Amino acid sequence: MDVIIGGFHVSGTLALFHTPTPDIQEILDLGVTVVTGEVEAEWENLLRDVLLGELQPLYNFLEPTPDLSTPPVPMIHKKYLRRFAYQQFGTIDCGRGCPFSCSFCSIINVQGRKMRMRDPEAIAQAIKENYRQADITFYFFTDDNFARNKKWREIFEAIIRLQETNGIAIEFIMQVDVLSYKIKDFITLARQAGCTQVFIGMESINDDNLQAADKKQNDAADYRNLIDAWHAADISTHVGFILGFPFDTYESIARDIERLKNEIQVDQASFFMLTPIPGSMDHLHAVQSGVPIDRDLNRYDSFHPTMDHPHMSREQWFDAYKQAWKSFYNFENMRSILQRATPRMYWNVFKNLVWYKSAAILEENHPMMTGFFRLKGRTARRPGYPIDSRLHYLRWRVPEVLGYLKAWVHFLLELEELWLQTRKRSEREQRLLEALASIRGGVLHNARIEELQLAYARAKLEVPSRLRLLLSKCNIWSIGRMTSREELRQFWGHTKDQLRTGNLLKIQVHKMVQNLWRELKLHTGFAVSFAFNLLPGRSDEQIMVE
Q1: pLDDT tens across 188-202, in order?
Q2: What is the DSSP string of 204-230?
Q3: Fewer CB near the terminus (10 Å): N or C of the chain?
Q4: CA 472 to CA 479: how far, in whole Å?
């Protein structure tokens, strides 16, 4: 069997070392063919060598890099998308390359620092065909730095024309640098074209770290202006943040996360541990300088320490990484993020917070590597690891699943509380709540019919009859004036104490029935809101549960 290996690891390594390193030589000695660079222009010749039995040990396609202006954009087939939970999602690389020289990056040493772009009309045509054939309405533009694509304006305008002439409205995420907000019309046209989120390579808020990483384009003092500019266009911000630069300490990382939350106020963060990725200048310098780095390449995922740090033990470094996730995605910060979010941003940010916290805290893994329930088949083990007996497998797997489900119940209740405290209310509902709060001294629950009618009158709304207000309590779609689960939490806590101490006669059965109905209405309202707004194309059309 012929085996071919390509990708950034082998491509970046050979681009910098020029000759096979010991790990690459090891697979060459096993008869594996190594292919470096981008293969589109050479794929036909490579397959011909396979069919003729003339496959060479090493193919170097690093130079020249292929022209992207004429090749067709790869199409996405609906049959392939059936494997995914979110089947309206697609990717397009509108361009390749990045002009900057970050030392931790391998992309620039494979795809180059000279920008190459696809034809804007070809991109628009691909979006049109993907919509027609596979109903794709959401994209991730995978360019390492879309802001440096010299045809960004033409691409945005082509997408806007597609929406105006064909009625195909898409949304997309793109990666940009910290200087992107200074490009004239860039944010405005991105918003018009359908951008809902940008991923920004912030990496650090310590200028010494940025200089050490040769990321001279970043100015930490300007980060707040960057975030504010994107927020002003109703576009959420997601930053990449690397922990473990030379000037980091355990204490400074914690301080930086607090600044990221409270001062810079980004909506989402992905944390990584500084890793000498093969193909990066960091890796080249480590090898040439004799710096000890791990030999196990399974650890080179940016989520584990693979080298020693000058100011932290590996254990401290890894703990700082875990604490960063817990600190950023705690309830208080998520609440602040959602309270700042505009109605257009709200549900996109909310569902991403659900994804990221469930992965980082419940699954204890990086969100970019994690879904919502990890399958662990008894026989699905890495080669060399023993297979558990069925009994032994069930002994550890069943408690693990039960513990995971219990954690999800607590998490869902936390999400309901988050929604109640931050949800975007209609202008009508907000006026009514303000009037009721002024009447009852800020207390909104257990209002009498007369107080509700007075609140409607003060809010200059049509005053409903007593019967209508009574019937509204039976409406499963209405969550009333609930702004928190706290009252329910206290009631169920008190009821649990009564059951545990045997004081059954003190349990208020009528209140149990009443609060069970409130719980049902709350769960229904939250589930409907979340499910409805999870559908593609809902950024500008939010459902309101009143």
Answers
A1: 999 999 999 999 999
A2: -S-HHHHHHTT-TT--GGGHHHHHHHH
A3: N
A4: 10
